[in-house]
Amino acid sequence: MTEQELLSHIFAELKKVAPECDPVELAPDENIREALDIDSFSFLRVLVGLNERTGVDIPESDYGKLSTLAAMTRYLMARLP
Amino acid sequence: MGEFRMPSLGADMETGKLVEWLVVPGQRVKRGDIVALVETQKGLFEIEVFEDGIMGEPLVAAGQTVPVGTLLARIEAGTAKAVFTEVRTEPTVEKTTEPSPVSKPQETIPAQPTISSERLSCSPSARRLALELGVDLATVQGTGPRGAIQRSDIEAAAQAKTITSPQATAAPAESAGDTPETRMRQAIAAAVSRSNREIPHYYLATEIDLSHPLQWLEEENRQRSMRERILPVVLLLKATAKALRDVPELNGFWLNDRLQVQPDIHVGFAIALRTGGLISPAIHHVDRLSLGELMQAMADLIERTRSGRLRGSEVTDATVSVTNLGDRGIKTVFGIIYPPQVALIGFGKISERPWAENGMLGVRRCVTATLAADHRATDGHQGALFLEALNRHLQQPEAL
Q1: B377 CB contacts (<8 Å, ≥6 apart)?
Q2: Number of domains forming the structure of chain A
């Protein structure tokens, strides 16, 4: 999976929980939850969706390491099966 | 034979639009089946029937907006057995022992001149209750044998009437140009205005050390797949329900000048909609669900709330409400009670705070829990007992 493909997966999952937003406009280091006004339940859904799309298991203690687009991409790219 | 009427879906609803029939005349339905979609100010809801039978001809066509209580269709009894399941335990031949000189003259007044006598299958005792409570028998759905109106039906109607009394719903008339967002605000405005006007709130707050329950939850979540992991708010919900079992006076309705404690604990969970506004649908029997089941129930409810697939009953039968504003960095919530409920429990953000205990200062993960309660129904003492019980249950997460 290329970084571009991963990004499109991330955008697709964000779009599911925040349909009226355009995640493409997120800055790489912007806090996703704050920028898109996503609650903890919806954010968990995004992570579960990404887990299913990428096969990367994200321990709960790592949830904080995926708070921006840049961090999320880095974290997942490093652990792709 | 039963009747399917436009239900009241909240403190603020006067009319509802029948958007779509999901069954056809002649179709067999059973209790709990979804038969229609109804649109209110708060969105679209799936409406279920409360009895078994065969769907009659629709009396209201799709697309029509009608007042709450309007007969939408009759439900013919399917089989004798189906009818029998609907017969509720009623104090049938209640001895009219009440020496009621006051109500005597009233009895001679025909309950409602507008209704034909054949619809008035109603015991004298139920009829008297209807007079006492000012319930229009024509609007009452009988659940007794052959649709007879029973005392329990009158009580239910009185409750619905309280909820939708015109005085309480000062919402401006719906105008054609209103957006769904505007109508949502109007619905919320009507409910909270009534709450602030009628309910003498009192507020209590306490800090709860969540270090131990959160550690326990992290350990528990390590053994769960991502999909099955439990959010901290689930612990808060379950502990709330268990504390309500200890202090049941906070779980109920203020109706007809008295507190009516409810046996079941259905927690209305405030869910913010992305388009603005909020809905507090009920998670049923929270005290009986395991943490995993509760997480699933909450997830299901949030998904369906946000996609507009709530059932009508879910927005009407909450016995208490919980609002969790922790995600927004809020420390303390001072809530407004949703009438006719008598309590609202609020949770703020879980954060690290200095914590003094046994002469030592440490850092703990804490949450501020608040109670907004109806002072007509309870006093501060009971409220304090509730918050104490909430803390006690949270400190024993393995027992939740």
Answers
A1: B249, B250, B252, B254, B259, B342, B343
A2: 1
